[in-house]
User: What shape does this take?
Amino acid sequence: MKSVHFLAFAVVAILSLLIGYYVGTNAKGGSMNDIVAAVESGMSSNTSAAMKNEGASDGKVLATVNGAEITDADVTALYETLPAQYRQAPKEFVEQQLLDQLVSMAVIGQAAQKENFGEKAEFQERLNTVRDQLLQEYYLKEKIDEMVTDEVIRAEYDKFAAEFKPDDEVQARHILLKTEQEANDIIKLLDEGGDFVELAKEYSTGPSGPNGGDLGYFTKDRMVPEFATAAFDLPAGEHTKMPVKTKFGYHVIKVEDKRQTQPPAFEEKQEEIRGQKTNSMVTTMIDELKAAASIILLTPKEDEKMEEKSETEEKSGSEGADKKD
Assistant: This one.
């Protein structure tokens, strides 16, 4: 894999220059090691595609290496494994460089086959490890696809929506001021017909000031108690007649609307549910497989360890006493 890693680094170096030129800046978004790892993974997965036998091609043939075809589909497959920042440029822009790398991979692979590197014990050991990993991944994928279906996700969402407990929430604005007197002055202006939004933009010291003091919708537990109590006690459309003091300063609050929370839409929730069901299913499946298997952990029990330690200490103490005598 060292040769593949070297080739991956070459791909990164070349594409960094090309795509930096294409977008007018250097490619960013990850460390060189991370990018090399991602490219290496893609190159490894496409090595066999680059060394296909003649007559087994898929798509337009772009090159042959000792009779083995490299096709447009092979280049596309390698391009799609690149990190996102290296796919800023279209495939056509880096196609020649990717083809060159596939040719390099093909000649190395063919040389390794010619010298029977595939028969070496170290290679076979690694191949078996990779095979086991792929087999495990394939098994889990098939079981997940079989058990975590769209129907299961929909049923879980329907259950969630049915059990959802709505909570009261308000939409409010506020004007945050440093002193009580300033807050009273704002309340007086509001009582005289002043526009809350404009006053917030002009006088509020809070981050929501430029937005007219808008805090959006919130439930009672999301605000400090003094603020929340005042806001939820106000009828919609009215502002506080007294300043509300909190650790942030003095607030003048206006409630725009009141409503109850609604469960998130299915489209917003489905991926979270899918992840939860997948994790639960995998955990249950592994537990069941373990329960059905004969598993022997060849490690000493803690009490046996303690006995061995005690015997060692007693022996050491006895030898020390003998030396004194």
Summary: Residues 124-164 form one domain.
